[in-house]
Write a structure and sequence with these properties.
Length: 642
Protein backbone atom coordinates (compact mmCIF):
# COMPACT_ATOMS: atom_id res chain seq x y z
CA UNK A 1 0.00 0.00 0.00
CA UNK A 2 1.32 3.41 -0.89
CA UNK A 3 0.50 6.46 1.18
CA UNK A 4 0.22 9.98 -0.13
CA UNK A 5 0.37 13.28 1.69
CA UNK A 6 -2.59 14.39 3.79
CA UNK A 7 -2.55 17.54 1.67
CA UNK A 8 -3.53 15.73 -1.52
CA UNK A 9 -7.16 16.13 -2.48
CA UNK A 10 -9.00 12.83 -2.71
CA UNK A 11 -11.02 13.00 -5.94
CA UNK A 12 -14.77 13.01 -5.34
CA UNK A 13 -15.14 10.26 -7.89
CA UNK A 14 -13.05 7.94 -5.71
CA UNK A 15 -15.14 8.68 -2.63
CA UNK A 16 -18.60 8.75 -4.18
CA UNK A 17 -18.35 6.67 -7.33
CA UNK A 18 -19.45 3.07 -7.41
CA UNK A 19 -17.44 0.63 -5.30
CA UNK A 20 -15.26 -1.70 -7.32
CA UNK A 21 -16.76 -4.58 -5.34
CA UNK A 22 -19.64 -4.83 -2.85
CA UNK A 23 -21.97 -7.26 -1.02
CA UNK A 24 -20.18 -10.61 -1.46
CA UNK A 25 -22.37 -13.63 -0.69
CA UNK A 26 -21.80 -17.38 -0.79
CA UNK A 27 -24.37 -19.70 -2.30
CA UNK A 28 -25.90 -21.92 0.40
CA UNK A 29 -23.94 -24.94 -0.84
CA UNK A 30 -20.69 -22.96 -1.09
CA UNK A 31 -20.15 -23.68 -4.77
CA UNK A 32 -20.60 -20.09 -5.96
CA UNK A 33 -19.89 -16.57 -4.82
CA UNK A 34 -21.84 -13.51 -5.94
CA UNK A 35 -21.03 -9.83 -5.56
CA UNK A 36 -21.99 -6.44 -6.93
CA UNK A 37 -19.68 -4.54 -9.25
CA UNK A 38 -20.08 -1.85 -11.93
CA UNK A 39 -20.59 -2.95 -15.52
CA UNK A 40 -17.71 -2.10 -17.84
CA UNK A 41 -19.95 -0.55 -20.48
CA UNK A 42 -22.28 1.58 -18.36
CA UNK A 43 -20.61 1.81 -14.91
CA UNK A 44 -23.83 0.58 -13.32
CA UNK A 45 -23.85 -1.85 -10.37
CA UNK A 46 -24.82 -5.36 -11.44
CA UNK A 47 -24.61 -8.89 -10.05
CA UNK A 48 -21.50 -10.92 -10.83
CA UNK A 49 -21.05 -14.64 -10.09
CA UNK A 50 -18.08 -16.99 -10.04
CA UNK A 51 -17.31 -20.43 -8.68
CA UNK A 52 -15.94 -20.03 -5.18
CA UNK A 53 -12.64 -21.69 -5.99
CA UNK A 54 -12.11 -19.73 -9.23
CA UNK A 55 -10.10 -16.51 -9.52
CA UNK A 56 -11.97 -13.23 -9.39
CA UNK A 57 -11.28 -12.56 -13.07
CA UNK A 58 -13.55 -15.49 -13.96
CA UNK A 59 -16.64 -13.76 -12.56
CA UNK A 60 -19.51 -13.24 -15.04
CA UNK A 61 -22.02 -10.39 -15.02
CA UNK A 62 -25.43 -12.09 -14.98
CA UNK A 63 -27.73 -9.05 -14.72
CA UNK A 64 -27.94 -6.15 -17.11
CA UNK A 65 -29.23 -3.07 -15.30
CA UNK A 66 -28.38 0.13 -17.16
CA UNK A 67 -29.82 2.83 -14.91
CA UNK A 68 -29.77 2.99 -11.09
CA UNK A 69 -27.85 -0.19 -10.35
CA UNK A 70 -28.73 -3.21 -8.21
CA UNK A 71 -28.15 -2.87 -4.47
CA UNK A 72 -30.05 -5.75 -2.89
CA UNK A 73 -29.33 -9.24 -4.23
CA UNK A 74 -28.88 -12.69 -2.72
CA UNK A 75 -29.08 -16.41 -3.28
CA UNK A 76 -32.14 -18.61 -3.36
CA UNK A 77 -31.79 -21.86 -1.45
CA UNK A 78 -31.23 -23.92 -4.62
CA UNK A 79 -27.77 -22.31 -4.95
CA UNK A 80 -28.55 -21.76 -8.65
CA UNK A 81 -30.78 -18.67 -8.59
CA UNK A 82 -30.10 -15.06 -7.70
CA UNK A 83 -33.01 -13.03 -6.32
CA UNK A 84 -32.83 -9.25 -6.34
CA UNK A 85 -35.02 -6.21 -5.71
CA UNK A 86 -35.20 -3.22 -8.05
CA UNK A 87 -37.37 -0.11 -8.32
CA UNK A 88 -37.83 2.37 -11.17
CA UNK A 89 -35.90 5.64 -10.98
CA UNK A 90 -36.26 5.93 -7.22
CA UNK A 91 -40.04 5.40 -6.87
CA UNK A 92 -39.44 2.64 -4.24
CA UNK A 93 -41.94 0.32 -5.92
CA UNK A 94 -39.43 -2.50 -5.69
CA UNK A 95 -40.11 -5.65 -7.70
CA UNK A 96 -38.57 -9.04 -6.98
CA UNK A 97 -36.56 -10.48 -9.87
CA UNK A 98 -35.05 -13.95 -10.35
CA UNK A 99 -32.25 -15.04 -12.65
CA UNK A 100 -30.77 -18.50 -13.20
CA UNK A 101 -27.00 -18.36 -12.80
CA UNK A 102 -26.16 -21.01 -15.38
CA UNK A 103 -28.70 -20.47 -18.16
CA UNK A 104 -27.88 -16.91 -19.16
CA UNK A 105 -31.60 -16.19 -19.47
CA UNK A 106 -32.95 -12.71 -18.83
CA UNK A 107 -34.14 -11.89 -15.33
CA UNK A 108 -37.80 -12.64 -14.62
CA UNK A 109 -40.07 -10.22 -12.73
CA UNK A 110 -41.81 -12.33 -10.08
CA UNK A 111 -43.99 -9.45 -8.83
CA UNK A 112 -45.14 -7.57 -11.95
CA UNK A 113 -47.66 -4.74 -12.11
CA UNK A 114 -47.89 -0.97 -12.07
CA UNK A 115 -47.42 0.66 -8.66
CA UNK A 116 -46.74 -2.73 -7.06
CA UNK A 117 -44.20 -2.90 -4.24
CA UNK A 118 -42.66 -6.16 -3.04
CA UNK A 119 -41.32 -6.63 0.48
CA UNK A 120 -40.64 -9.18 3.24
CA UNK A 121 -38.77 -11.74 1.13
CA UNK A 122 -38.29 -15.00 3.06
CA UNK A 123 -36.24 -18.05 2.05
CA UNK A 124 -35.86 -21.35 3.90
CA UNK A 125 -33.27 -24.09 3.50
CA UNK A 126 -35.91 -26.75 4.30
CA UNK A 127 -38.03 -25.56 1.36
CA UNK A 128 -35.41 -24.83 -1.30
CA UNK A 129 -37.84 -24.37 -4.21
CA UNK A 130 -40.17 -21.89 -2.52
CA UNK A 131 -40.06 -18.35 -1.23
CA UNK A 132 -42.53 -16.19 0.64
CA UNK A 133 -42.91 -12.64 -0.62
CA UNK A 134 -45.22 -9.78 0.29
CA UNK A 135 -46.81 -7.40 -2.23
CA UNK A 136 -49.49 -4.72 -2.24
CA UNK A 137 -50.85 -5.82 -5.63
CA UNK A 138 -54.35 -6.51 -4.21
CA UNK A 139 -54.55 -3.40 -2.04
CA UNK A 140 -52.02 -0.56 -2.36
CA UNK A 141 -52.41 0.22 1.36
CA UNK A 142 -51.19 -3.13 2.75
CA UNK A 143 -49.11 -6.21 1.95
CA UNK A 144 -50.41 -9.76 1.52
CA UNK A 145 -48.01 -12.70 1.67
CA UNK A 146 -47.64 -15.00 -1.35
CA UNK A 147 -45.98 -18.37 -1.73
CA UNK A 148 -43.92 -18.45 -4.91
CA UNK A 149 -42.12 -21.13 -6.88
CA UNK A 150 -39.38 -18.83 -8.10
CA UNK A 151 -38.30 -21.28 -10.82
CA UNK A 152 -41.69 -21.34 -12.56
CA UNK A 153 -42.93 -17.96 -11.34
CA UNK A 154 -46.12 -19.56 -9.99
CA UNK A 155 -47.53 -17.32 -7.24
CA UNK A 156 -50.37 -18.23 -4.87
CA UNK A 157 -51.91 -16.11 -2.13
CA UNK A 158 -50.75 -17.53 1.19
CA UNK A 159 -52.02 -15.05 3.82
CA UNK A 160 -54.30 -12.10 3.14
CA UNK A 161 -53.77 -8.92 5.10
CA UNK A 162 -56.90 -7.88 7.04
CA UNK A 163 -55.70 -4.29 6.68
CA UNK A 164 -53.92 -3.65 9.98
CA UNK A 165 -50.84 -5.88 9.61
CA UNK A 166 -47.55 -4.04 9.07
CA UNK A 167 -45.21 -7.05 9.27
CA UNK A 168 -45.20 -10.82 8.88
CA UNK A 169 -43.10 -13.70 10.22
CA UNK A 170 -42.73 -17.37 9.26
CA UNK A 171 -42.03 -20.29 11.56
CA UNK A 172 -38.82 -21.88 10.35
CA UNK A 173 -39.60 -25.62 10.43
CA UNK A 174 -43.00 -25.44 8.72
CA UNK A 175 -42.27 -22.31 6.63
CA UNK A 176 -45.79 -21.11 7.40
CA UNK A 177 -46.80 -17.53 8.10
CA UNK A 178 -47.50 -17.69 11.80
CA UNK A 179 -46.77 -14.16 12.99
CA UNK A 180 -48.59 -10.92 12.19
CA UNK A 181 -47.43 -7.57 13.58
CA UNK A 182 -50.39 -5.24 13.95
CA UNK A 183 -50.38 -1.47 14.42
CA UNK A 184 -53.51 -0.51 16.36
CA UNK A 185 -54.89 2.76 15.01
CA UNK A 186 -56.76 3.76 18.17
CA UNK A 187 -53.69 4.11 20.38
CA UNK A 188 -50.69 3.26 18.12
CA UNK A 189 -49.85 0.24 20.23
CA UNK A 190 -48.33 -2.77 18.50
CA UNK A 191 -49.75 -6.27 18.90
CA UNK A 192 -48.02 -9.50 17.93
CA UNK A 193 -50.54 -12.08 16.73
CA UNK A 194 -49.57 -15.72 16.25
CA UNK A 195 -51.25 -18.93 15.15
CA UNK A 196 -50.29 -22.54 15.85
CA UNK A 197 -50.52 -23.57 12.19
CA UNK A 198 -51.62 -21.86 8.99
CA UNK A 199 -55.06 -23.48 9.44
CA UNK A 200 -55.59 -22.19 12.99
CA UNK A 201 -57.12 -18.89 14.08
CA UNK A 202 -54.94 -15.94 14.97
CA UNK A 203 -54.59 -15.02 18.64
CA UNK A 204 -52.88 -12.16 20.43
CA UNK A 205 -49.55 -13.03 22.04
CA UNK A 206 -48.38 -9.69 23.39
CA UNK A 207 -49.10 -5.98 23.02
CA UNK A 208 -46.55 -3.20 23.25
CA UNK A 209 -48.28 0.05 24.24
CA UNK A 210 -47.10 3.19 22.47
CA UNK A 211 -43.74 4.09 24.02
CA UNK A 212 -42.63 0.46 24.41
CA UNK A 213 -40.37 -1.39 21.97
CA UNK A 214 -40.07 -5.05 21.05
CA UNK A 215 -40.88 -7.88 18.71
CA UNK A 216 -40.72 -11.62 18.11
CA UNK A 217 -37.29 -12.99 17.15
CA UNK A 218 -38.02 -16.67 16.42
CA UNK A 219 -39.77 -19.81 17.62
CA UNK A 220 -37.92 -22.27 19.83
CA UNK A 221 -37.45 -25.79 18.46
CA UNK A 222 -40.14 -27.29 20.73
CA UNK A 223 -42.81 -24.98 19.30
CA UNK A 224 -43.96 -24.12 22.82
CA UNK A 225 -41.74 -21.12 23.45
CA UNK A 226 -40.27 -18.24 21.50
CA UNK A 227 -37.60 -15.58 21.76
CA UNK A 228 -38.83 -12.01 22.12
CA UNK A 229 -37.18 -8.62 22.46
CA UNK A 230 -39.06 -6.35 24.85
CA UNK A 231 -38.73 -3.10 26.80
CA UNK A 232 -41.76 -3.88 28.99
CA UNK A 233 -40.86 -3.28 32.62
CA UNK A 234 -37.38 -2.02 31.81
CA UNK A 235 -35.58 0.84 30.05
CA UNK A 236 -33.76 -0.95 27.22
CA UNK A 237 -34.94 -3.93 25.20
CA UNK A 238 -34.01 -7.34 26.61
CA UNK A 239 -33.94 -10.73 24.89
CA UNK A 240 -36.51 -12.96 26.59
CA UNK A 241 -37.73 -16.53 26.26
CA UNK A 242 -41.53 -16.56 26.54
CA UNK A 243 -44.37 -19.09 26.70
CA UNK A 244 -46.31 -19.07 23.42
CA UNK A 245 -49.62 -19.91 25.11
CA UNK A 246 -49.55 -17.33 27.89
CA UNK A 247 -46.96 -14.79 26.74
CA UNK A 248 -45.31 -15.06 30.16
CA UNK A 249 -41.54 -14.67 30.48
CA UNK A 250 -39.74 -17.96 31.09
CA UNK A 251 -36.21 -16.54 31.08
CA UNK A 252 -34.35 -13.27 30.61
CA UNK A 253 -31.62 -14.33 28.19
CA UNK A 254 -29.75 -11.05 27.75
CA UNK A 255 -29.99 -7.37 28.58
CA UNK A 256 -27.70 -4.40 29.13
CA UNK A 257 -28.57 -1.05 30.67
CA UNK A 258 -26.28 0.73 28.18
CA UNK A 259 -28.40 0.23 25.07
CA UNK A 260 -30.99 -1.93 23.38
CA UNK A 261 -30.40 -5.57 22.51
CA UNK A 262 -29.30 -5.91 18.88
CA UNK A 263 -28.99 -8.82 16.46
CA UNK A 264 -29.53 -12.39 17.67
CA UNK A 265 -27.67 -15.39 16.20
CA UNK A 266 -29.48 -18.73 16.58
CA UNK A 267 -28.55 -22.28 15.71
CA UNK A 268 -30.80 -22.92 12.70
CA UNK A 269 -31.51 -26.50 13.75
CA UNK A 270 -31.70 -26.43 17.55
CA UNK A 271 -32.77 -22.77 17.85
CA UNK A 272 -30.38 -22.34 20.75
CA UNK A 273 -28.94 -18.84 21.29
CA UNK A 274 -25.40 -18.55 19.95
CA UNK A 275 -24.66 -14.83 20.24
CA UNK A 276 -26.21 -11.40 20.69
CA UNK A 277 -24.81 -8.10 19.43
CA UNK A 278 -25.40 -4.67 20.92
CA UNK A 279 -24.04 -1.24 20.14
CA UNK A 280 -23.67 1.71 22.47
CA UNK A 281 -20.80 3.38 20.62
CA UNK A 282 -19.14 0.36 18.98
CA UNK A 283 -20.30 -3.18 18.16
CA UNK A 284 -20.05 -5.62 21.08
CA UNK A 285 -21.03 -9.29 21.34
CA UNK A 286 -22.12 -11.71 24.04
CA UNK A 287 -21.51 -15.38 23.19
CA UNK A 288 -23.13 -18.60 24.37
CA UNK A 289 -21.56 -20.75 21.62
CA UNK A 290 -17.89 -21.16 22.57
CA UNK A 291 -16.88 -22.34 19.12
CA UNK A 292 -18.44 -19.29 17.51
CA UNK A 293 -16.74 -17.09 20.10
CA UNK A 294 -13.40 -18.68 19.26
CA UNK A 295 -13.99 -18.02 15.54
CA UNK A 296 -14.51 -14.33 16.24
CA UNK A 297 -11.40 -14.25 18.43
CA UNK A 298 -9.39 -15.76 15.57
CA UNK A 299 -10.79 -13.21 13.12
CA UNK A 300 -10.25 -10.29 15.47
CA UNK A 301 -6.62 -11.32 15.84
CA UNK A 302 -6.25 -11.01 12.05
CA UNK A 303 -8.10 -7.71 11.69
CA UNK A 304 -6.32 -4.35 11.34
CA UNK A 305 -5.97 -2.48 14.61
CA UNK A 306 -9.27 -0.90 15.61
CA UNK A 307 -11.30 -2.66 12.91
CA UNK A 308 -14.60 -4.41 13.55
CA UNK A 309 -15.30 -7.91 12.22
CA UNK A 310 -18.58 -8.48 10.41
CA UNK A 311 -19.88 -11.73 8.93
CA UNK A 312 -21.78 -11.15 5.70
CA UNK A 313 -22.51 -14.68 4.59
CA UNK A 314 -22.13 -18.34 5.61
CA UNK A 315 -22.75 -21.58 3.78
CA UNK A 316 -25.49 -23.80 5.17
CA UNK A 317 -22.88 -26.08 6.73
CA UNK A 318 -21.02 -23.00 8.05
CA UNK A 319 -17.68 -24.27 6.77
CA UNK A 320 -17.11 -21.15 4.66
CA UNK A 321 -17.81 -17.54 5.67
CA UNK A 322 -17.50 -14.18 3.99
CA UNK A 323 -16.18 -11.71 6.53
CA UNK A 324 -15.37 -8.03 6.35
CA UNK A 325 -12.86 -5.98 8.32
CA UNK A 326 -14.61 -2.64 8.78
CA UNK A 327 -12.51 0.42 9.55
CA UNK A 328 -13.39 4.07 9.86
CA UNK A 329 -10.16 5.16 8.19
CA UNK A 330 -10.21 2.91 5.15
CA UNK A 331 -12.38 0.86 2.81
CA UNK A 332 -13.81 -2.49 3.92
CA UNK A 333 -11.60 -5.50 3.18
CA UNK A 334 -13.36 -8.81 2.46
CA UNK A 335 -12.03 -12.33 3.08
CA UNK A 336 -13.19 -15.93 2.77
CA UNK A 337 -12.87 -17.65 6.15
CA UNK A 338 -12.32 -21.40 6.28
CA UNK A 339 -13.97 -22.25 9.57
CA UNK A 340 -12.34 -25.69 9.83
CA UNK A 341 -8.80 -24.54 9.12
CA UNK A 342 -9.30 -21.22 10.97
CA UNK A 343 -7.67 -19.41 8.07
CA UNK A 344 -8.62 -16.58 5.74
CA UNK A 345 -7.93 -15.89 2.08
CA UNK A 346 -8.30 -12.37 0.67
CA UNK A 347 -11.27 -11.74 -1.59
CA UNK A 348 -11.25 -8.05 -2.49
CA UNK A 349 -11.39 -4.50 -1.14
CA UNK A 350 -14.56 -2.47 -1.66
CA UNK A 351 -12.73 0.64 -2.93
CA UNK A 352 -9.07 -0.31 -3.40
CA UNK A 353 -8.22 3.10 -4.88
CA UNK A 354 -8.71 4.63 -1.41
CA UNK A 355 -5.83 2.56 -0.06
CA UNK A 356 -3.55 5.14 -1.68
CA UNK A 357 -4.70 7.81 0.77
CA UNK A 358 -4.25 8.36 4.48
CA UNK A 359 -7.76 8.77 5.82
CA UNK A 360 -8.93 10.29 9.09
CA UNK A 361 -9.84 8.31 12.22
CA UNK A 362 -13.36 8.47 13.64
CA UNK A 363 -13.66 8.85 17.41
CA UNK A 364 -16.73 8.08 19.46
CA UNK A 365 -17.47 10.83 21.98
CA UNK A 366 -20.15 11.50 24.58
CA UNK A 367 -21.67 15.00 24.58
CA UNK A 368 -23.66 16.44 27.51
CA UNK A 369 -26.90 18.31 26.82
CA UNK A 370 -28.31 21.36 28.58
CA UNK A 371 -30.73 19.18 30.56
CA UNK A 372 -28.19 16.56 31.64
CA UNK A 373 -28.60 13.85 29.02
CA UNK A 374 -25.67 12.19 27.23
CA UNK A 375 -25.44 11.89 23.45
CA UNK A 376 -23.22 9.33 21.73
CA UNK A 377 -21.61 11.02 18.74
CA UNK A 378 -18.84 10.41 16.21
CA UNK A 379 -16.12 12.93 15.43
CA UNK A 380 -13.92 12.90 12.32
CA UNK A 381 -11.33 15.68 12.17
CA UNK A 382 -8.97 17.21 9.71
CA UNK A 383 -5.34 16.75 10.77
CA UNK A 384 -4.84 19.88 12.86
CA UNK A 385 -5.02 20.94 16.49
CA UNK A 386 -6.50 24.30 15.56
CA UNK A 387 -10.26 24.97 15.40
CA UNK A 388 -11.59 24.25 11.90
CA UNK A 389 -14.90 24.74 10.13
CA UNK A 390 -17.39 22.12 11.30
CA UNK A 391 -19.98 20.09 9.38
CA UNK A 392 -22.82 18.94 11.63
CA UNK A 393 -23.89 15.86 9.64
CA UNK A 394 -27.39 14.94 10.82
CA UNK A 395 -28.73 11.42 10.28
CA UNK A 396 -32.13 10.78 8.73
CA UNK A 397 -35.06 8.89 10.13
CA UNK A 398 -35.16 10.47 12.62
CA UNK A 399 -35.88 7.10 14.22
CA UNK A 400 -32.53 5.64 13.26
CA UNK A 401 -28.95 6.15 14.47
CA UNK A 402 -25.39 6.89 13.44
CA UNK A 403 -22.75 4.20 13.95
CA UNK A 404 -18.99 3.93 13.85
CA UNK A 405 -17.37 2.92 10.56
CA UNK A 406 -16.21 4.16 7.18
CA UNK A 407 -18.22 7.20 6.08
CA UNK A 408 -17.27 8.70 2.71
CA UNK A 409 -18.86 12.05 3.58
CA UNK A 410 -16.88 12.37 6.81
CA UNK A 411 -13.66 11.48 4.97
CA UNK A 412 -14.47 13.95 2.21
CA UNK A 413 -15.00 16.74 4.70
CA UNK A 414 -11.85 15.91 6.66
CA UNK A 415 -9.80 15.91 3.47
CA UNK A 416 -11.17 19.36 2.59
CA UNK A 417 -10.25 20.77 6.01
CA UNK A 418 -13.48 20.37 7.98
CA UNK A 419 -14.34 18.50 11.18
CA UNK A 420 -17.47 16.32 11.00
CA UNK A 421 -19.78 15.66 13.95
CA UNK A 422 -22.49 12.98 13.77
CA UNK A 423 -24.84 13.03 16.76
CA UNK A 424 -27.32 10.50 18.08
CA UNK A 425 -29.78 13.13 19.29
CA UNK A 426 -32.81 12.16 21.39
CA UNK A 427 -35.31 10.41 19.15
CA UNK A 428 -32.52 8.21 17.78
CA UNK A 429 -32.96 4.47 18.17
CA UNK A 430 -30.89 1.98 20.14
CA UNK A 431 -30.59 3.83 23.46
CA UNK A 432 -33.75 2.74 25.21
CA UNK A 433 -37.37 3.85 25.20
CA UNK A 434 -36.94 7.00 27.29
CA UNK A 435 -34.20 8.36 25.05
CA UNK A 436 -36.25 7.55 21.95
CA UNK A 437 -39.48 9.11 23.19
CA UNK A 438 -37.85 12.18 24.72
CA UNK A 439 -37.83 13.17 21.05
CA UNK A 440 -41.65 13.08 20.87
CA UNK A 441 -43.11 16.45 19.85
CA UNK A 442 -39.61 17.94 19.95
CA UNK A 443 -39.02 18.64 16.26
CA UNK A 444 -37.66 21.99 15.13
CA UNK A 445 -38.03 24.25 18.13
CA UNK A 446 -37.76 21.47 20.74
CA UNK A 447 -35.15 19.29 22.36
CA UNK A 448 -34.23 17.28 19.26
CA UNK A 449 -32.91 20.46 17.67
CA UNK A 450 -31.51 21.67 21.00
CA UNK A 451 -29.38 18.52 21.12
CA UNK A 452 -27.82 19.46 17.80
CA UNK A 453 -27.25 23.00 18.99
CA UNK A 454 -25.65 21.73 22.20
CA UNK A 455 -23.38 19.42 20.18
CA UNK A 456 -22.16 22.37 18.11
CA UNK A 457 -21.52 24.43 21.25
CA UNK A 458 -19.59 21.49 22.73
CA UNK A 459 -17.39 21.32 19.62
CA UNK A 460 -16.73 25.06 19.88
CA UNK A 461 -15.89 24.84 23.59
CA UNK A 462 -13.56 21.89 22.98
CA UNK A 463 -11.59 23.93 20.49
CA UNK A 464 -12.64 21.66 17.61
CA UNK A 465 -14.89 24.06 15.70
CA UNK A 466 -14.53 27.62 14.48
CA UNK A 467 -17.72 29.24 15.81
CA UNK A 468 -18.11 31.40 12.71
CA UNK A 469 -17.86 28.52 10.24
CA UNK A 470 -20.50 25.92 11.06
CA UNK A 471 -22.59 24.11 8.43
CA UNK A 472 -25.65 21.96 9.17
CA UNK A 473 -25.88 19.23 6.54
CA UNK A 474 -28.22 16.27 6.19
CA UNK A 475 -30.69 14.17 4.22
CA UNK A 476 -34.34 13.32 4.90
CA UNK A 477 -34.89 14.21 8.58
CA UNK A 478 -31.31 15.50 8.47
CA UNK A 479 -32.47 17.83 5.70
CA UNK A 480 -35.34 18.97 7.90
CA UNK A 481 -32.85 19.55 10.76
CA UNK A 482 -30.82 21.69 8.36
CA UNK A 483 -33.85 23.82 7.53
CA UNK A 484 -34.82 23.99 11.21
CA UNK A 485 -31.31 24.99 12.18
CA UNK A 486 -31.25 27.84 9.69
CA UNK A 487 -34.70 29.11 10.72
CA UNK A 488 -34.78 28.52 14.49
CA UNK A 489 -31.08 29.12 15.32
CA UNK A 490 -30.15 31.45 12.46
CA UNK A 491 -27.05 32.90 14.14
CA UNK A 492 -25.43 29.51 14.73
CA UNK A 493 -24.80 28.41 11.15
CA UNK A 494 -22.84 29.96 8.31
CA UNK A 495 -24.63 27.80 5.72
CA UNK A 496 -26.74 24.69 5.27
CA UNK A 497 -27.11 21.76 2.87
CA UNK A 498 -30.54 20.09 2.71
CA UNK A 499 -31.02 16.85 0.76
CA UNK A 500 -34.63 15.61 0.36
CA UNK A 501 -35.68 17.36 3.57
CA UNK A 502 -39.32 18.28 4.34
CA UNK A 503 -40.17 21.95 4.85
CA UNK A 504 -43.87 21.66 5.82
CA UNK A 505 -44.68 18.70 8.06
CA UNK A 506 -48.40 18.72 7.29
CA UNK A 507 -47.87 18.49 3.53
CA UNK A 508 -45.18 15.85 4.16
CA UNK A 509 -47.61 13.56 5.98
CA UNK A 510 -50.43 14.26 3.55
CA UNK A 511 -48.33 12.90 0.68
CA UNK A 512 -46.79 9.73 2.16
CA UNK A 513 -47.24 6.47 0.21
CA UNK A 514 -50.53 4.62 0.81
CA UNK A 515 -48.77 1.67 2.47
CA UNK A 516 -47.49 4.00 5.20
CA UNK A 517 -51.09 4.64 6.23
CA UNK A 518 -51.11 2.31 9.27
CA UNK A 519 -48.02 4.08 10.59
CA UNK A 520 -49.39 7.60 10.27
CA UNK A 521 -51.02 7.87 13.70
CA UNK A 522 -47.81 6.73 15.37
CA UNK A 523 -45.90 9.35 13.42
CA UNK A 524 -48.31 12.01 14.69
CA UNK A 525 -47.68 10.89 18.27
CA UNK A 526 -43.95 11.23 17.72
CA UNK A 527 -44.02 14.46 15.70
CA UNK A 528 -47.10 16.17 17.12
CA UNK A 529 -50.63 16.52 15.79
CA UNK A 530 -50.01 18.64 12.71
CA UNK A 531 -53.35 17.41 11.32
CA UNK A 532 -55.62 19.17 13.80
CA UNK A 533 -53.29 21.80 15.23
CA UNK A 534 -52.44 24.23 12.45
CA UNK A 535 -50.52 26.51 14.80
CA UNK A 536 -48.29 23.64 15.94
CA UNK A 537 -47.54 22.69 12.34
CA UNK A 538 -46.58 26.26 11.54
CA UNK A 539 -44.47 26.38 14.68
CA UNK A 540 -42.26 23.43 13.67
CA UNK A 541 -42.33 23.75 9.86
CA UNK A 542 -39.39 25.81 8.49
CA UNK A 543 -41.46 26.96 5.50
CA UNK A 544 -43.36 29.37 7.75
CA UNK A 545 -40.16 30.90 9.15
CA UNK A 546 -38.23 31.63 5.97
CA UNK A 547 -37.89 35.29 6.96
CA UNK A 548 -35.60 34.24 9.82
CA UNK A 549 -33.03 32.59 7.55
CA UNK A 550 -29.75 34.48 7.34
CA UNK A 551 -27.38 31.85 5.98
CA UNK A 552 -27.22 30.57 2.38
CA UNK A 553 -28.79 27.20 1.61
CA UNK A 554 -28.13 24.47 -0.95
CA UNK A 555 -31.02 22.07 -1.69
CA UNK A 556 -30.84 18.71 -3.48
CA UNK A 557 -33.99 16.77 -4.41
CA UNK A 558 -35.05 13.68 -6.35
CA UNK A 559 -38.12 14.24 -8.51
CA UNK A 560 -39.47 10.71 -7.90
CA UNK A 561 -39.09 10.72 -4.11
CA UNK A 562 -42.18 8.94 -2.69
CA UNK A 563 -41.42 9.92 0.92
CA UNK A 564 -40.47 13.60 0.71
CA UNK A 565 -42.12 14.86 -2.45
CA UNK A 566 -40.54 17.44 -4.73
CA UNK A 567 -43.04 20.01 -3.46
CA UNK A 568 -41.22 20.08 -0.10
CA UNK A 569 -38.09 21.40 -1.82
CA UNK A 570 -39.95 23.58 -4.32
CA UNK A 571 -41.92 25.51 -1.75
CA UNK A 572 -39.03 26.58 0.46
CA UNK A 573 -36.63 27.19 -2.45
CA UNK A 574 -39.06 29.49 -4.28
CA UNK A 575 -40.03 31.24 -1.05
CA UNK A 576 -36.39 32.00 -0.24
CA UNK A 577 -35.78 33.16 -3.79
CA UNK A 578 -38.74 35.55 -3.65
CA UNK A 579 -37.43 37.04 -0.42
CA UNK A 580 -33.92 37.50 -1.77
CA UNK A 581 -32.31 34.95 0.59
CA UNK A 582 -29.36 33.10 -1.02
CA UNK A 583 -30.50 29.65 -2.14
CA UNK A 584 -29.33 27.13 -4.72
CA UNK A 585 -31.63 24.27 -5.78
CA UNK A 586 -30.66 21.18 -7.78
CA UNK A 587 -33.32 18.70 -8.93
CA UNK A 588 -32.59 15.24 -10.39
CA UNK A 589 -35.47 13.86 -12.51
CA UNK A 590 -34.30 10.22 -12.29
CA UNK A 591 -33.73 10.06 -8.52
CA UNK A 592 -35.85 9.37 -5.46
CA UNK A 593 -35.09 9.62 -1.75
CA UNK A 594 -31.38 10.26 -2.23
CA UNK A 595 -29.02 9.98 -5.16
CA UNK A 596 -28.37 6.42 -6.30
CA UNK A 597 -26.73 7.10 -9.67
CA UNK A 598 -23.00 7.88 -9.22
CA UNK A 599 -23.00 10.67 -11.81
CA UNK A 600 -25.76 12.47 -9.92
CA UNK A 601 -24.17 11.80 -6.54
CA UNK A 602 -20.81 13.13 -7.71
CA UNK A 603 -22.54 16.06 -9.41
CA UNK A 604 -24.37 17.16 -6.28
CA UNK A 605 -21.36 16.67 -4.03
CA UNK A 606 -19.26 18.71 -6.46
CA UNK A 607 -21.74 21.54 -6.19
CA UNK A 608 -21.84 21.12 -2.40
CA UNK A 609 -18.05 21.27 -2.25
CA UNK A 610 -17.98 24.57 -4.11
CA UNK A 611 -20.76 25.86 -1.85
CA UNK A 612 -18.89 24.87 1.32
CA UNK A 613 -15.63 26.35 0.08
CA UNK A 614 -17.41 29.63 -0.62
CA UNK A 615 -19.02 29.95 2.80
CA UNK A 616 -16.66 27.97 5.10
CA UNK A 617 -13.35 28.45 3.30
CA UNK A 618 -12.28 24.82 2.90
CA UNK A 619 -10.44 23.29 0.00
CA UNK A 620 -12.23 22.26 -3.17
CA UNK A 621 -11.50 20.10 -6.18
CA UNK A 622 -12.32 21.73 -9.51
CA UNK A 623 -15.91 21.05 -10.54
CA UNK A 624 -16.87 19.71 -13.95
CA UNK A 625 -20.39 18.45 -14.45
CA UNK A 626 -20.25 14.64 -14.89
CA UNK A 627 -21.34 13.57 -18.35
CA UNK A 628 -24.24 11.45 -17.07
CA UNK A 629 -25.61 13.97 -14.56
CA UNK A 630 -29.27 14.84 -15.01
CA UNK A 631 -29.18 17.96 -12.78
CA UNK A 632 -31.90 20.54 -13.35
CA UNK A 633 -32.26 23.98 -11.80
CA UNK A 634 -35.90 24.97 -11.14
CA UNK A 635 -35.02 28.42 -9.81
CA UNK A 636 -33.07 29.27 -12.94
CA UNK A 637 -35.82 27.88 -15.16
CA UNK A 638 -38.34 30.11 -13.41
CA UNK A 639 -36.05 33.07 -13.96
CA UNK A 640 -35.83 32.28 -17.68
CA UNK A 641 -39.61 32.09 -17.98
CA UNK A 642 -40.00 35.38 -16.12
Amino acid sequence: MTTTSDEQLIPREKLFGNPKYASPKLSPDGAYLSFLAPSVEDNVLNVFVKKTDEPLDNARMITNDKSRGIRNAGWAEDSKTILYMQDKEGDENFHLWAIDVASGEEARDLTPGENVKASSLMTNKRFPDEILIGTNARDEKCFDMYRCNYKTGEMTLDTENPGDVVGWGAEDFSFEIREAVVRNQADSSTTVRIRDTSKDEWRELITFPYGENGGLVDWCADGKAAYLQSSLGRETTALLKIDLKTGETLEEVFATDKCDCGGVTLDEDTKEIRAVTYNYARTERKFWDKELENDYKVLESMAPEGAEVVCLSRTNDEKLWIIGFVRADGPTEYFVYDQTAKSTSPLFVSKPELLDYKLAPMDDVVIPTRDGMELVAYLTKAKTDEPTPLILLVHGGPWARDSWGFNPQAQWFANRGYATLQVNYRGSTGYGKTFLHKGDKQWGVGDMQHDLTDAVQWAIEQGIADKDKICVYGGSYGGYACLAGLTFTPDLYACGVDIVGPSNIKTLLDSIPPYWGPLRNGMLLKIGDVDSDEDFNKKISPLFHVDKIKAPLLIGQGANDPRVKQAEADQIAFSMKEKGIPVEYVLYPDEGHGFARPDNRIDFNGRAEQFLAKYLGGRAEEFDRPEGSTAMFPLLEQQKVA
